[in-house]
Amino acid sequence: MKGLNLSDIYETLALYIEGEFVESDGRRTEEVRNPATGEVLAHLPHASRADLDRALSAAERAFVSWSKSSPLDRSRILRKVAELARERASEIGRNITRDQGKPLSEAIAEVLSCAEHAEWHAEECRRIYGRVIPPRQPNVRQIVVREPVGVCAAFTPWNFPFNQALRKMVAALGSGCTLILKGPEDSPSAVVALARLFHDAGLPPGCLNIVWGVPSEISDYLIRSPSVRKVSFTGSVGVGKQLASLAGAHMKRGTWELGGHSPVLVFDDADVDTAATMLARFKVRNAGQVCVSPSRFFVQSKVYDRFAARFTETLASIKVGNGLDSGVEMGPLAHARRVVEMEAFVDDALARGGKIATGGARLGHTGHFFAPTVVTDLPADARLLTNEPFGPIAPLLRFSDPQEAIARANALPFGLSSYVFTESLKTATYASGALEAGMVNINHFGSALAETPFGGVKDSGVGSEGGTESFDGYLVIKYITHC
Predict the structure, then answer these.
(1) Domain region containing 282
(2) Are residues 67 and 148 in contact, defined by beta-carbon separation less than 8 angstroms?
(3) Whose CA is closest to 182, among 216, 227, 226, 230?
(4) Computed from CA positions of residues 430, 435, 436, 440, in that sequence, does the dihedral angle turn out positive or negative?
(5) Do both 233 and 326 map to the same domain?
(6) Are residues 320 and 376 in the same domain?
(7) pTM summary value
(8) 1: pLDDT confidence band, cut at 50, 70 and 90?
(9) Whole-angstrom Cα distance, residue 427 to residue 72?
């Protein structure tokens, strides 16, 4: 069309079943809106019961051949996905900003980082080894092999729509499993784009299937299906527990990456200015809608005032706006309900004697914008200290005794990520051993790399994604002995 800029074209939304992109064609649809402007971007088709049955049958049939495919062939496809992701990163990233809200630079970086995940799994899927067990008798042979578990169902969130979906795709497909994935209806473009990447990379029909719909209905139907042998879910603790209970009732294994409420410990001997600046900028990444976002800041007394001043100053300087605008450092929250939730956190803090050092209110009348916020002087039972905010609100807390800070950090049922800032090796060693978290970052942010495991403890989940542990949830152990 004359005069049409291709960068303005939003993704054509569809289901992806048995190698075919299936558009609405009379199916129920829902609106997808830009959280910065309220603009309706497209209409997302929901899967019918027949669509789900077709996806299940396709995945089951494809598993017969894909589970026996050469790891070299799987590796080749994953490498091609990485190559295509890099080529299309700007286009995919722009659409992520449109439907999810994060700044364009963050969205493009999300896609590019995922190319590394595809490449890493392409290499590691060639190294899914078994072992030989020395026998007790010379005429006996004992071997252990690891085999793909079967058809998998995955459910991924809206905050990192490309990253979270790709991580499950490359782990499942790299191990020889087939997959049905329901992505986030709020920010679906990235998942459809992923289907196109795998399709164009030559993935056989049925190995990957994408469906959309009412989350509770889709998850219930897929998890109960006899075809599904494993479930992977990233999302809230409450929903995760419901799905884990359902999967357990049907004796299906699962990987659960749930919510967090990440404690930060800043000790007196830390590089305070660097820590405060780094943490403030990390806090507003994706508007704080990050499961490993630092969300409870425990600062030792001698450096508290200095840290608070630098941290608050940095947060107050963050440029908030439409993620497609130049220079924007923080976009809108993904949904209107998230703004309401931020206001509820602030209201509770003020009712309990908390003080707002900066921010504390929504911004403007269009879009779902909320100011980066710092809250001080909170009692331990404040909602902001017991519930994950999942937004750009940071509570600052003073401590004197390191053991007291550790106890307060561990007091909640969450255990995903944690952060420690200190120049003392002794303090770092003590804190990393004492913190009840699946990940401990000392003096930097080093999680979520392709080669490192990502997962939590306690209510924050079971199992890990990434690293050599990535394939564990998709493989079963078979012991073979003969004489």
Answers:
(1) 262-449
(2) yes
(3) 216
(4) negative
(5) no
(6) yes
(7) 0.96
(8) very low
(9) 46
Examine residue 370 and state whether it is found in any structural domain, yes or no: yes
Residue reference for tokens 């079963």: 476
State whether 19 and 155 are in the same domain.
Answer: yes
Tens of pLDDT, residue by residue over 326-347, are: 999 999 999 999 999 999 999 9
As a whole number, mean pLDDT of residues 405-425 equals 98
- Cα-only R_g, the chain: 23
pLDDT digits (tens, 9 = 90+) for 437-467: 999 999 999 999 999 999 999 999 999 999 9
What's the CA gap between 311 and 319, in Å, rounded?
15
From its phi and psi, is residue 417 left (phi > 0), alpha (psi between -120 and 50) or beta? beta
Q: What is the pLDDT of residue 461?
A: 96
Encoding tokens for residue 280? Answer: 């403030």
- Whether 257 sits among the annotated catalytic residues: the reply is yes
In angstroms, rounded to a whole number, what is the distance separating the alpha carbons of residues 241 and 264? 26
Q: Is residue 127 part of a domain?
A: yes
Same-domain pairing of 179 and 272: no
- Whether 404 is catalytic is no
- 112 burial (CB, 10 Å; 0-12 / 13-18 / 19+) is middle
User: What is the DSSP code (8-state) at residue 453?
Assistant: -
Residues 289 and 202 in one domain: no
Which tokens hold the place of 303?
Answer: 């450096």
Burial of 188 (0-12, 13-18, 19+ CB in 10 A): buried
C-alpha dist (Å) from residue 51 to 15, 25, 26, 159, 215 = 9, 12, 13, 26, 15
For residue 6, is pLDDT > 80?
A: no
DSSP E strands, 34-92: 40-45
Catalytic residue from among 60, 185, 291, 388: 291
Q: What is the CATH number of the domain that holds 317?
A: 3.40.309.10
Total domains in the fold of the chain: 2
Structure tokens belonging to residue 200: 């164009």
Instruction: Classify residue 126: in a domain, yes or no.
Output: yes
Q: Would you list the DSSP string of 273-312?
A: HHHHHHHHHHHTGGGG--TT-EEEEEEEHHHHHHHHHHHH
Q: How confident is the model over 2-26, as a mean pLDDT?
A: 85
Kindly state whether residues 305 and 440 are assigned to the same domain.
Answer: yes
Q: Which residues pair with 394 in a beta bridge?
A: 374
CA separation for the pair 419, 441 (Å, rounded): 5
**Among residues 11, 60, 124, 257, which one is catalytic?**
257
What distance in Å separates the CA atoms of residue 109 and residue 102, rounded to the nearest whole number? 11
CB 292, CB 456: distance < 8 Å:
no
CA 142 to chain centroid:
40
Q: How far apart are CA 243 and CA 247, in angstroms?
A: 6
Number of H helices, E strands in the chain: 14, 20
The residue behind tokens 């309401």 is 340
